[in-house]
Design goal:
The chain has nine helices and five strands. By secondary structure, it is an alpha/beta fold. The protein has one domain: Flavodoxin domain (Rossmann fold). Strand 1, helix 1 (16-30) and strand 2 (34-39) form a beta-alpha-beta unit. It is globular and about 55 Å long. It starts with a strand and ends in a 5-residue tail after the last helix. The relative contact order is 0.18. It binds flavin mononucleotide. Keywords: Flavoprotein, FMN. GO terms for molecular function: oxidoreductase activity.
Length: 222
């Protein structure tokens, strides 16, 4: 079982968000997961340029670190997304990655996989960021099993105290993957989403042959 953590903070190793992600991964490791961690700031990930090659060809043609990271993401059984709050939202680094993965929504690339999200803030919007990141995971087809947001500015010990909660979140993530835990509300969302995209993908077949082929390969349309 592979679980990949992705940190959207530009502060790299000094990042408070990284501490939460690392604690989630530690908990997952205690449950037998093989863990890996990526700081987006260490990679060369360019802005999405709206070329739509991914929709047409089923692959990214940009020569940067995104295609390699995308393969890693698709090869994981679980994802842990983390971003600090920057002006009430995720960081630009995390948004760059999310925009580059738009094709993953249409192709439901994380279908059958699990994930969770964490965020740290000075004093507000950390829960909104957790909600947004989990929503993104869900749109990719994954099942978010929970999240953790910590306002570090309100209480200097908040981060240390939250690391235990983060470890528990990691254990829950690994257990959910191992037991293929079912979350009926999320399954209902995926069913609605799949129906909506079946119509979109079929309608756009001439413009998006790459995505259409993926749906045929998955036997979602025939
Ligand atoms: C550019 C910038 C914008 C920020 N915006 C917010 C904000 O809107 N709300 C908030 O509570 N904290 C905000 N913060 C504080 C960070 O979210 C907080 O320090 C966070 O824990 C940093 O995480 P990191 O160490 O993982 O980068 C901001 C910090 C920076 C540098």
């Amino acid at each position: 079982m592979k679980i990949l953590g992705i940190n959207g903070s530009p502060r790299g190793e000094r990042s408070a968000t990284l501490r939460l992600i690392a604690a989630v991964l530690e908990g997952a490791k205690e449950e037998g997961a093989e863990i890996d961690l990526v700081n987006i700031i260490d990679l060369d990930i360019k802005f999405r340029n709206a070329c739509s090659a991914c929709f047409q060809e089923g692959r990214c043609v940009e020569d940067d670190d995104f295609p390699g990271l995308y393969e890693k993401i698709k090869g994981a059984d679980g994802l842990v997304l983390g971003s600090p709050v920057y002006i009430d939202q995720i960081t630009g680094q995390m948004k760059l990655l999310i925009d580059r993965m738009a094709d993953g929504i249409q192709c439901q690339v994380l279908s059958g996989k699990y994930g969770c999200s964490v965020s740290t803030s000075g004093d507000h919007a950390e829960q909104e960021v957790v909600k947004y990141l989990n929503h993104f995971l869900q749109m990719l087809g994954a099942t978010p099993i929970g999240g953790l947001g910590v306002a570090t500015g309100k209480d200097p010990d908040a981060l240390i105290r939250s690391e235990e909660d983060a470890r528990k979140l990691g254990k829950t993530l690994a257990e959910a993957i191992r037991t293929r835990r079912q979350y009926p509300e999320i399954a209902a969302f995926h069913e609605r989403f799949q129906k909506k995209f079946e119509a979109v993908i079929t309608g756009e077949k001439p413009e998006w042959p790459g995505d259409y082929k993926h749906w045929v390969d998955q036997v979602w349309v025939w």
